[in-house]
Amino acid sequence: MTHAIHVDVLRDNLVAALGGLARSVKVSAGEVTVVVASTDYLAAAQQLRDHPQCAFEQLIDLCGVDYCDYRDGQWDGARYAVVLHLLSVSLNQRVRLKVFAADDDFPCVASMCSVWAAANWFEREAFDLFGIVFEGHEDLRRILTDYGFIGHPFRKDFPTSGHVEMRYDPEQRRVIYQPVTIEPREITPRIIREEKYGGAPGRR
Question: What pTM did the predictor assign?
Fold first, then answer.
Protein backbone atom coordinates (compact mmCIF):
# COMPACT_ATOMS: atom_id res chain seq x y z
CA MET A 1 0.00 0.00 0.00
CA THR A 2 1.32 3.47 -0.93
CA HIS A 3 1.03 6.00 1.86
CA ALA A 4 0.22 9.63 1.07
CA ILE A 5 3.19 11.93 1.54
CA HIS A 6 2.95 15.02 3.73
CA VAL A 7 1.57 18.08 1.95
CA ASP A 8 4.70 20.10 2.71
CA VAL A 9 6.84 17.46 1.02
CA LEU A 10 4.44 17.43 -1.92
CA ARG A 11 4.65 21.23 -2.14
CA ASP A 12 8.45 21.09 -2.23
CA ASN A 13 8.38 18.34 -4.88
CA LEU A 14 6.01 20.40 -7.02
CA VAL A 15 8.18 23.51 -6.70
CA ALA A 16 11.21 21.49 -7.83
CA ALA A 17 9.34 19.79 -10.68
CA LEU A 18 7.63 22.88 -12.08
CA GLY A 19 10.34 25.47 -11.51
CA GLY A 20 9.49 28.68 -13.37
CA LEU A 21 6.25 27.22 -14.74
CA ALA A 22 4.53 27.86 -11.38
CA ARG A 23 3.47 31.31 -10.28
CA SER A 24 2.73 30.00 -6.80
CA VAL A 25 2.57 26.69 -4.91
CA LYS A 26 0.69 27.03 -1.63
CA VAL A 27 -0.70 24.80 1.10
CA SER A 28 -4.09 25.66 2.60
CA ALA A 29 -6.52 23.49 4.58
CA GLY A 30 -4.29 20.47 3.99
CA GLU A 31 -4.36 20.83 0.20
CA VAL A 32 -1.75 22.03 -2.30
CA THR A 33 -2.76 24.56 -4.96
CA VAL A 34 -0.56 25.38 -7.94
CA VAL A 35 -1.26 28.57 -9.93
CA VAL A 36 0.22 28.93 -13.41
CA ALA A 37 0.06 31.56 -16.14
CA SER A 38 -2.11 30.78 -19.16
CA THR A 39 1.00 30.76 -21.36
CA ASP A 40 2.53 27.99 -19.19
CA TYR A 41 -0.67 26.04 -18.58
CA LEU A 42 -0.13 23.22 -21.09
CA ALA A 43 3.56 22.76 -20.28
CA ALA A 44 2.82 22.70 -16.53
CA ALA A 45 0.07 20.11 -17.01
CA GLN A 46 2.38 17.85 -19.01
CA GLN A 47 5.03 18.16 -16.30
CA LEU A 48 2.53 17.32 -13.58
CA ARG A 49 1.54 14.19 -15.49
CA ASP A 50 5.01 13.02 -16.53
CA HIS A 51 7.45 14.07 -13.80
CA PRO A 52 8.28 11.05 -11.60
CA GLN A 53 7.68 12.98 -8.37
CA CYS A 54 4.29 14.18 -9.62
CA ALA A 55 2.80 11.35 -11.73
CA PHE A 56 -0.71 12.83 -11.79
CA GLU A 57 -2.21 10.30 -14.16
CA GLN A 58 -5.85 11.19 -13.54
CA LEU A 59 -7.91 14.33 -14.01
CA ILE A 60 -10.68 14.12 -11.42
CA ASP A 61 -12.42 17.41 -12.11
CA LEU A 62 -12.18 20.58 -14.18
CA CYS A 63 -14.43 23.59 -13.75
CA GLY A 64 -14.71 27.28 -14.51
CA VAL A 65 -14.80 30.06 -11.91
CA ASP A 66 -16.08 33.63 -12.27
CA TYR A 67 -14.38 36.03 -9.84
CA CYS A 68 -16.65 38.93 -10.87
CA ASP A 69 -18.07 39.60 -7.37
CA TYR A 70 -15.30 37.94 -5.37
CA ARG A 71 -14.46 39.72 -2.11
CA ASP A 72 -17.49 41.98 -2.55
CA GLY A 73 -16.13 43.43 -5.76
CA GLN A 74 -12.63 44.11 -4.37
CA TRP A 75 -11.00 41.48 -6.58
CA ASP A 76 -8.54 43.16 -8.95
CA GLY A 77 -7.23 40.11 -10.81
CA ALA A 78 -8.42 38.35 -13.96
CA ARG A 79 -12.10 37.49 -13.94
CA TYR A 80 -12.17 33.90 -15.21
CA ALA A 81 -10.20 30.91 -13.98
CA VAL A 82 -10.10 27.21 -14.74
CA VAL A 83 -9.49 24.88 -11.80
CA LEU A 84 -8.40 21.24 -12.10
CA HIS A 85 -8.14 18.54 -9.45
CA LEU A 86 -5.53 15.91 -10.23
CA LEU A 87 -4.84 12.53 -8.67
CA SER A 88 -1.74 10.37 -8.68
CA VAL A 89 -2.83 6.80 -8.04
CA SER A 90 0.74 5.51 -8.07
CA LEU A 91 1.99 8.03 -5.49
CA ASN A 92 -1.29 8.52 -3.60
CA GLN A 93 -1.32 12.31 -3.80
CA ARG A 94 -3.57 15.09 -5.04
CA VAL A 95 -3.10 18.63 -6.27
CA ARG A 96 -5.26 21.54 -7.39
CA LEU A 97 -4.12 23.34 -10.55
CA LYS A 98 -5.47 26.83 -11.29
CA VAL A 99 -5.03 29.05 -14.34
CA PHE A 100 -6.53 32.49 -15.04
CA ALA A 101 -7.58 33.48 -18.55
CA ALA A 102 -5.63 36.54 -19.65
CA ASP A 103 -8.54 38.29 -21.43
CA ASP A 104 -11.77 38.97 -19.51
CA ASP A 105 -13.67 39.80 -22.72
CA PHE A 106 -12.61 36.59 -24.47
CA PRO A 107 -11.46 34.08 -21.82
CA CYS A 108 -9.31 31.44 -23.49
CA VAL A 109 -6.87 28.81 -22.22
CA ALA A 110 -5.33 25.69 -23.73
CA SER A 111 -7.34 22.49 -23.85
CA MET A 112 -6.16 19.63 -21.66
CA CYS A 113 -7.64 16.89 -23.85
CA SER A 114 -4.21 15.97 -25.18
CA VAL A 115 -2.92 15.53 -21.61
CA TRP A 116 -5.96 13.93 -19.95
CA ALA A 117 -8.72 12.61 -22.23
CA ALA A 118 -11.21 13.05 -19.38
CA ALA A 119 -11.01 16.82 -19.88
CA ASN A 120 -13.27 16.60 -22.94
CA TRP A 121 -16.72 16.91 -21.36
CA PHE A 122 -15.47 19.00 -18.41
CA GLU A 123 -14.15 21.64 -20.83
CA ARG A 124 -17.38 21.59 -22.82
CA GLU A 125 -19.27 22.22 -19.58
CA ALA A 126 -17.00 25.15 -18.62
CA PHE A 127 -17.45 26.57 -22.12
CA ASP A 128 -21.21 26.18 -21.96
CA LEU A 129 -21.69 27.63 -18.48
CA PHE A 130 -18.89 30.24 -18.30
CA GLY A 131 -18.01 30.95 -21.93
CA ILE A 132 -14.39 29.93 -21.44
CA VAL A 133 -12.82 28.84 -24.73
CA PHE A 134 -10.40 25.91 -24.71
CA GLU A 135 -7.97 26.28 -27.59
CA GLY A 136 -7.23 22.98 -29.28
CA HIS A 137 -10.43 21.24 -28.18
CA GLU A 138 -11.73 19.34 -31.21
CA ASP A 139 -15.45 19.44 -30.35
CA LEU A 140 -16.08 22.53 -28.22
CA ARG A 141 -19.87 22.93 -28.17
CA ARG A 142 -22.57 23.26 -25.55
CA ILE A 143 -23.30 20.20 -23.47
CA LEU A 144 -25.96 21.18 -20.88
CA THR A 145 -28.01 24.08 -22.25
CA ASP A 146 -30.43 23.96 -25.18
CA TYR A 147 -29.46 24.51 -28.81
CA GLY A 148 -30.89 28.02 -28.93
CA PHE A 149 -29.60 29.11 -25.54
CA ILE A 150 -28.11 32.60 -25.39
CA GLY A 151 -25.29 33.48 -23.00
CA HIS A 152 -23.50 31.54 -20.28
CA PRO A 153 -25.67 30.94 -17.18
CA PHE A 154 -22.93 30.53 -14.54
CA ARG A 155 -21.48 33.97 -15.17
CA LYS A 156 -22.22 36.21 -12.18
CA ASP A 157 -23.83 38.88 -14.38
CA PHE A 158 -26.21 36.46 -16.12
CA PRO A 159 -29.86 37.29 -15.21
CA THR A 160 -31.53 34.67 -13.04
CA SER A 161 -34.56 34.61 -15.36
CA GLY A 162 -32.41 34.20 -18.49
CA HIS A 163 -32.80 36.05 -21.80
CA VAL A 164 -35.23 33.89 -23.77
CA GLU A 165 -37.87 31.29 -23.01
CA MET A 166 -39.13 28.35 -25.02
CA ARG A 167 -42.75 27.32 -25.51
CA TYR A 168 -44.89 25.29 -27.89
CA ASP A 169 -46.95 27.42 -30.26
CA PRO A 170 -50.16 25.54 -31.23
CA GLU A 171 -50.76 27.77 -34.27
CA GLN A 172 -47.29 27.21 -35.73
CA ARG A 173 -47.23 23.65 -34.38
CA ARG A 174 -43.65 23.94 -33.26
CA VAL A 175 -41.46 25.07 -30.39
CA ILE A 176 -40.56 28.76 -30.53
CA TYR A 177 -38.23 31.04 -28.62
CA GLN A 178 -39.28 34.44 -27.32
CA PRO A 179 -38.03 37.07 -24.85
CA VAL A 180 -38.61 36.18 -21.21
CA THR A 181 -42.06 37.31 -20.06
CA ILE A 182 -41.69 36.60 -16.34
CA GLU A 183 -41.97 39.76 -14.28
CA PRO A 184 -39.33 39.88 -11.53
CA ARG A 185 -40.91 40.10 -8.10
CA GLU A 186 -40.06 39.77 -4.45
CA ILE A 187 -41.66 36.93 -2.57
CA THR A 188 -42.26 37.51 1.13
CA PRO A 189 -42.80 34.26 3.05
CA ARG A 190 -46.17 33.94 4.74
CA ILE A 191 -45.87 33.70 8.51
CA ILE A 192 -48.64 32.02 10.50
CA ARG A 193 -48.64 32.62 14.22
CA GLU A 194 -50.70 30.36 16.47
CA GLU A 195 -51.51 31.17 20.04
CA LYS A 196 -50.18 28.70 22.63
CA TYR A 197 -48.23 26.84 19.93
CA GLY A 198 -46.66 23.76 21.51
CA GLY A 199 -48.63 24.27 24.71
CA ALA A 200 -51.49 21.83 24.22
CA PRO A 201 -53.26 20.59 27.38
CA GLY A 202 -51.61 17.66 29.04
CA ARG A 203 -48.14 18.47 27.68
CA ARG A 204 -45.31 19.71 29.88
Answer: 0.80
